[in-house]
């Protein structure tokens, strides 16, 4: 049988234990522009905000143009600021899925949900449930009018 020296075993063990520390998710930083309420572009890279689902651009919530308002709000939050996005995953369209923050530390996804312009994307996380409950309780954004979930809207309005 093959025998490893103690030093080789120790090195391999430390490498395995250090892997999570060394394998930090990629970070994309720079000025950005919004494509819609949950997608932005930094340095020509499309970034989907992790854990939220914003209203589709052409979606209305009663008479409220919730999709247009979601896009406008994300643009306003990012305008003139450097955005830092920490990658969590990739989606089926090849976009980076990331938690994106302003220099102040404000999480863009959390703020969009807090404003009632996006919902917690429960298929992927429950991280924004508190913000959603707050928006619902204070009838912010679409919660003041009633709405169809973005997922259901996409099912009924395929592109």
From TrEMBL:
PROSITE patterns linked: TNASE_3
Endpoints of the signal sequence: 1-23
Keyword list, A-Z: Signal
SMART domains noted in UniProt: SNc
InterPro entries named among the record's database cross-references: SNase_OB-fold_sf (IPR035437), Staphylococal_nuclease_OB-fold (IPR016071)
Top-level taxon in the UniProt lineage: Bacteria
TNase-like domain location: 35-145
PANTHER family named among the record's database cross-references: BLR1266 PROTEIN, EBNA2 BINDING PROTEIN P100
Protein name: TNase-like domain-containing protein
């Amino acid at each position: 049988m093959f025998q490893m020296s103690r030093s080789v075993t120790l090195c391999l063990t430390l490498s395995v234990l250090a892997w999570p520390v060394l394998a930090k998710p990629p970070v994309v930083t720079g000025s950005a522009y919004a494509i819609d309420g949950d997608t932005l572009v930094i340095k020509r890279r499309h970034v989907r905000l992790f854990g939220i689902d914003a209203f589709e651009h052409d979606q209305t919530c009663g008479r409220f143009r919730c999709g247009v308002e979601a896009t406008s709000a994300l643009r306003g939050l990012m305008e003139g600021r450097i955005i830092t996005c920490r990658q969590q995953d990739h989606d089926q369209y090849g976009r980076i899925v990331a938690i994106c923050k302003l220099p102040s530390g404000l999480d863009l996804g959390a703020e969009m949900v807090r404003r009632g312009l996006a919902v917690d994307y429960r298929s992927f996380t429950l991280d924004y449930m508190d913000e959603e409950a707050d928006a619902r309780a204070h009838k912010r954004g679409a919660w003041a009018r009633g709405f169809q979930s973005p997922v259901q809207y996409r099912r009924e309005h395929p592109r």
